[in-house]
Amino acid sequence: MSRTSGTSTAIRVLLADDEAMVRAGVRAILDSSGDTEVVAEAGDGREAVELARAHRPDVALLDIRMPRLDGLTAVEEIVRTVPGTAVAMLTTFSEGAYVTRALGGGATGFLLKSGDPYELIAGVRAVAAGAAFLSPKVARYVIDQGLGGGRLTREAQARARVAVLSPREREVLGLVGAGLSNPEIAARLHLVEGTVKAYVSAILDRLGVRNRVQAAIVAYEAGLVEA
């Protein structure tokens, strides 16, 4: 995906939220990072989809509750029509129940509006690099509240699922859960990136999950990552 701006390499971001103050705050945080550029802002989901098609940003950062078209439907539209754009959701604790649908729609990041500014920047960088990223507080909330069944039951199920993985695959899964991209995992484990891609593909297949965020949640529930 392209990351070039007029003067420097940058992660190009579309920001969508119906509250102008939220957009201003998020833009200020991203501007401070030095490597992100907000190329467009939308006040509703329909506008977000239209601007994503027009600008083809690296990352679309979407609020869940927006007029005209909610963020969950906008995720599905952007993933379907602008496949080169990664999507991350801006969430609040009260919106944990929507995570499953957002995951199914193709979102690969979940960030708290009230979270640490560094987490916002790190999350945008991670999803732009093709990794999954869950704010630690979001991950804990999802595990405790959002995915159905009792927590102990889900933990036992997750441990049983990862038991079929090799020790190296479990190690890679833990790093996926920590939000590392393939190049970062390769550097951490002293592997070539192609080998890491093969591991990740095998892990997704063996766990029966669609994307890295779903794998990351399994990693959290199985205790491979501290939320």
Automatic annotation (TrEMBL):
Domain named Response regulatory is located at 12-128
PROSITE patterns given for it?
HTH_LUXR_1 (PS00622), HTH_LUXR_2 (PS50043), RESPONSE_REGULATORY (PS50110)
InterPro entries noted in UniProt: CheY-like_superfamily, NreC/VraR/RcsB-like_REC, Sig_transdc_resp-reg_C-effctor, Sig_transdc_resp-reg_receiver, Tscrpt_reg_LuxR_C, WalR-like
Task: Report the domain of life of the source organism.
Answer: Bacteria
Query: Which keywords annotate this record?
Result: DNA-binding, Phosphoprotein, Transcription, Transcription regulation
Ranges for domain HTH luxR-type: 158-223
Does Hydrolase appear among the keywords? no
Its GO biological process terms?
Answer: phosphorelay signal transduction system; regulation of DNA-templated transcription
Q: GO: which molecular function terms?
A: DNA binding
Query: 4-aspartylphosphate-modified residues are where?
Result: 63
The record, for PANTHER family, names: TRANSCRIPTIONAL REGULATORY PROTEIN NARL-RELATED, TWO-COMPONENT RESPONSE REGULATOR
Name the record gives this protein: DNA-binding NarL/FixJ family response regulator
Organism, scientific name: Streptomyces caelestis
